[in-house]
């Protein structure tokens, strides 16, 4: 395990790229194996998750195990040698990993989203090339969001045509996974204002990734600033991402469902921590009339309520995954809108239970649960940080417009 040597309070230097895997990644056979591998990895990932958060230790060994396990290629189509599992299974995999360490769960989200986009918009030759990279264990990071734009979908990063390649210039932030990626998909506009994924080599000249992520939560998502200075990307790696949103496709719902799964994972971890603390450390309240904290009727009620709400979110998460499966196979205005709507419903419930469970943890476990030695506040910090990815208040608007006025959700990566 490697500790980051670049401190966020003085980050100014580029982080060097990591070597690509020398051994091909495992290729998962089916949905059952994907879930089993996720559980096996989670057992290991949870062991040092608190320490990684506290000391901001990069999950280097864990990330290698995750991407080499085959879980980073589970949505590669069968036609190209992938397992093509259900998106309900993919979401469950991310939830399981995120319950162990939500930063690691988040690192995979853009990789899996880009793999889905390649299926939607790339031609067969490009699909074969890029799916082949994913199957080998190559990790895609991301350089999507920009810090100074008016809206999340406004991009200033642009590329110019240079024959067999393009040249890109710009600056990115919130680049989850970019520090230890092997390839970095950069969202850049062409001269018509259309957004493409220009997938650059992590070690490309002019591509600088800086370890300056300073959020109080999701501290080891390997994010930071990406500076793009005349970076060359071959046209073989230029993916027309805009095509995923100029007509109904499942791409937006796929990016969203992965977000949902991270949050249900955080909620699961918080409830598990609460139960463990109440059963092993908490004291019964003086007026309760019981000897054990776990016999407190108010605590019993609260755990039941939290678990019920988590199960509701998980049920919608599974339903959303199945709806996405249908929209991938048959992308129509109706199937895509249905997938977006169910995913939005799941996003609302997952956000609410993640915040509630991580907050209720301290109320139910008691004062000693706030001691620094336990670092239980990491769950609340992670939930509060990750659920800000896109505002849930707008999900209610999407649902109301759909059910009241028959208006389909907008087509973009946040819907």
From TrEMBL:
Give the signal peptide, or none. none
The record's CDD domains line, in alphabetical order, gives: DszC
Q: Where is the Acyl-CoA dehydrogenase/oxidase N-terminal domain?
A: 45-131
A Gene Ontology BP annotation from the UniProt entry: L-leucine catabolic process
- Keywords associated with the record: Oxidoreductase
Q: Which SUPFAM superfamilies does the annotation name? A: Acyl-CoA dehydrogenase C-terminal domain-like, Acyl-CoA dehydrogenase NM domain-like
Q: Which GO terms describe its molecular function?
A: 3-methylbutanoyl-CoA dehydrogenase activity; flavin adenine dinucleotide binding
Q: Coiled-coil intervals in this record?
A: none
What domain of life does the UniProt record list for this protein's source? Bacteria
Q: Where does the record place the Acyl-CoA dehydrogenase C-terminal domain?
A: 258-390
| Record's keyword annotation contains Oxidoreductase | yes
NCBIfam families attached to this UniProt entry = sulfur_SfnB
Q: Which PANTHER family match?
A: ACYL-COA DEHYDROGENASE, ISOVALERYL-COA DEHYDROGENASE, MITOCHONDRIAL-RELATED
Record-given protein name:
SfnB family sulfur acquisition oxidoreductase
Origin species: Rhizobium loti (Mesorhizobium loti)
């Amino acid at each position: 395990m490697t500790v980051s040597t670049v401190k966020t309070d003085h980050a100014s230097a580029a982080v060097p790229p990591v070597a690509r895997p020398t051994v091909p990644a495992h290729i998962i056979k089916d949905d059952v194996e994907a879930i089993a591998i996720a559980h096996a990895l989670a057992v290991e990932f949870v062991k040092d998750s608190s320490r990684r958060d506290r000391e901001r230790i990069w999950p280097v060994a864990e990330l290698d195990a995750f991407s080499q396990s085959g879980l980073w290629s589970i949505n590669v189509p069968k036609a190209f040698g992938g397992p093509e599992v259900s998106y309900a299974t993919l979401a469950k995999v991310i939830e399981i990993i995120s319950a162990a360490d939500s930063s690691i769960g988040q690192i995979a989200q853009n990789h899996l989203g880009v793999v889905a986009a390649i299926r939607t918009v790339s031609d067969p030759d490009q699909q074969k090339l890029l799916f082949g990279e994913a199957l080998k264990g190559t990790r895609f990071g991301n350089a999507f969001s920009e810090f100074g734009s008016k809206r999340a979908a406004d991009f200033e990063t642009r590329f110019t045509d240079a024959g067999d390649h393009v040249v890109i210039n710009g600056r990115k932030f919130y680049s989850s996974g970019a520090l230890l990626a092997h390839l970095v998909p950069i969202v850049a506009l062409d001269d018509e204002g259309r957004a493409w994924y220009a997938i650059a080599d992590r070690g490309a000249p002019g591509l600088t990734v800086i370890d300056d992520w300073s959020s109080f939560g999701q501290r080891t998502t390997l994010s930071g600033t990406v500076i793009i200075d005349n970076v060359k990307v071959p046209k073989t790696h230029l993916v027309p991402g805009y095509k995923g949103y100029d007509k109904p496709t499942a791409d937006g719902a796929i990016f969203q469902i992965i977000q949902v799964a991270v949050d249900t994972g955080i909620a699961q971890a918080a409830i598990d921590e609460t139960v463990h603390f109440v059963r092993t450390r908490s004291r019964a309240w003086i007026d309760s009339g019981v000897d054990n904290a776990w016999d407190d009727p108010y605590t019993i009620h609260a755990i039941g309520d939290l678990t019920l709400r988590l199960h509701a979110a998980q049920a919608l998460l599974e339903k959303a995954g199945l709806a996405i499966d249908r929209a991938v196979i048959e992308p129509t205005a109706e199937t895509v809108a249905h997938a977006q709507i169910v995913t939005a419903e799941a996003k609302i419930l997952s956000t609410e239970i993640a915040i509630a469970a991580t907050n209720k943890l301290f109320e139910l476990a008691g004062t000693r649960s706030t001691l620094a030695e336990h670092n239980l506040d990491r769950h609340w910090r992670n939930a509060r940080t990750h659920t800000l990815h896109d505002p849930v208040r707008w999900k209610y608007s999407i649902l109301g417009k759909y059910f009241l006025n028959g208006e389909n959700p907008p087509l973009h990566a946040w819907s």
